[in-house]
Amino acid sequence: MKKLVVFLFLIVISIITFSFISSPPDELALNSAIPQGDYKMKDVSGKTVSLNEIKTAKGLLVIFSCNTCPYVKLSEARIKEYSDYCLANGIGCALINSNEAQRTEDDSFDKMSAYFTEQKLKCAYAVDEKSQLANAFGATRTPQCFLFNTKGLVYKGAIDDNVKDAAAVKAPYLKEALGALLKNETPKTQETKSIGCTIKRVE
After folding, report:
1. Could you tell me which residue, 103 or 11, shows the higher pLDDT?
2. CB within 8 Å of 47: residues ≥ 6 apart
3. What domains are defined for the chain?
4. Is residue 10 predicted with pLDDT exceeding 60?
5. Mean pLDDT over all residues of the chain?
6. DSSP, res 191
7. Residue among 124, 61, 133, 127 at smallest CA distance from 90
8. What residues have CB less than 8 Å from 117, skipping those under 6 apart?
9. What is the per-residue pLDDT across 15-43, written as a single tens digit (0 to 9) for each?
10. At what angle do helices 173-182 and 70-88 cross, to 10 degrees?
11. Residue 143, preceding bond cis, omega within 30 degrees?
12. 92 near 60, Cβ under 8 Å?
């Protein structure tokens, strides 16, 4: 009887504990509008920016990124290439740092500014306070991409099919999606799985 009581007690504790574990936010659905477009963020330029201000008449690319994730490090040249491509072709582009749990460490604003300069980036690189934008997008990884045309979300997921080796890429998802957007076409592939580090939210 005593063992049964202990067993039932452990089950109740497990249920209570499980109920308090925060589940990841739902990922933004295809065709959705830009969430929290007016949400103001501090950019490495020192100005406050919003996605509504960054988007253009052609669209907007949002990449959730950071300074130190190994997967971001492996993707740096590609992030630079596609962010520059967006600006050169009249598409808005923003890199978003949602690692709120590391603001006093490697994802501080000062270190973001230094990283931006080191990478010779040209697009916005903004602080997402309390991971609000990541929560609205349902973003969970770095790097993770969301591409919008004038009507809504047309691509979400990975940059390509080989985050570890750019030379071995066979399916450049984001490149193809950007090309389709410029032709006013729907990307052949609209959704892929992002491989990367988890966004460091404050629990």
Report:
1. 103
2. none
3. 24-198 (3.40.30.10)
4. no
5. 90
6. B
7. 61
8. none
9. 333 333 345 579 999 999 999 989 999 99
10. 20
11. yes
12. yes
